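[Q] Does anyone have a clean structure-token version of this?
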Amino acid sequence: MTDTTSVPNGWVCLYPQVSSVTEDNRVTENNSVTEDNRATNQTVTMSLDNRGLAYADGFFTTMGVIDGLILWSDYHYRRLVSHAKALQLNINSEELLAVLQLYAQQLEQGMLKLVVTRAAQDVRGYGYTPSTNGSDCEIWLKATAMRVSTVLQLSLPDGNLVPIQPTASAICLASQIACLPPPLAGLKSLNRLDNVLASGELQRIKAEPLASKLASTLGEGLLRDMGGQWVEGTMSNVFYQLAEAPLSESKTSSSIHKDNENYLTTGQWYTPSMAQSGVAGVMRQVIIDALSTTQYPVIIRSLQDEDLPKLTHLFFCNALRGIMPMSSLTLLSGDVVDFESV
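[A] Here you go.
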């Protein structure tokens, strides 16, 4: 096995190849990290019978890495535990996180994408055996360079820092996302076709030959579920603030933020429930937890059509980009709701 000083370029199969982590934090046997903590280049192939490919039978999570540390590792660990339980997959989450931390140390700066799929089954079709074999899984990892800026950061009330992106604009999309039954609602499962189509719609708007100046600044699209509630972005969760009257009629400015420092702690933030649709994102929970002991804890509240003209602030968020503040939201009618600049 040939080793190199760089993180593998491409996908690595962590399990069933990875078996354990030793007491001195070295991965053992025929694995992807050598005794001197350097990754090896392995050629691995995924079978066309893989259940993730055939049935989207699995989940994924994408982790940012800065200075050799996984951002929000505790929250990603919770996702491993909760998703394994919901999908009845046998994962040693503590061992897996230890392996991921080794890759993070080696990567130093970048992204780690983890994909977990159920192992091949003896039964034909969708089913899986009610046994240990039915819960076995394959675990895949890909390390890449960081493709988003993390230079600008915002301090959360609990002292943690979160990336904040330059202000952009948003648009309501015609695409809709599925409403799902428990335990699937809120999961970051491999079935993301509704998000794929929504992202395609957003890209088409950006690429229109006669795109307006607003379209050229579009950063994200707001999505409804099949019940008509506005739930999330194409790749992110959403938080918002409301005026008591539509923005054009409101005379108050108490919720306007004059600087980044107070952006999250001035005024009441709301976020839609993930109980029926959407993905309960890592950064969404980080923000909910960070504001839980402040004057204005986040309130879980549905976002309806009639709320949109009353929006005073809106941001999207995910675990890589952090907070993405919006300057305006274009409604399906073509009307534009403007927000105070961050």
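[Q] Thanks! Anything notable?
[A] The CA atoms of residues 64 and 71 lie 5 Å apart.
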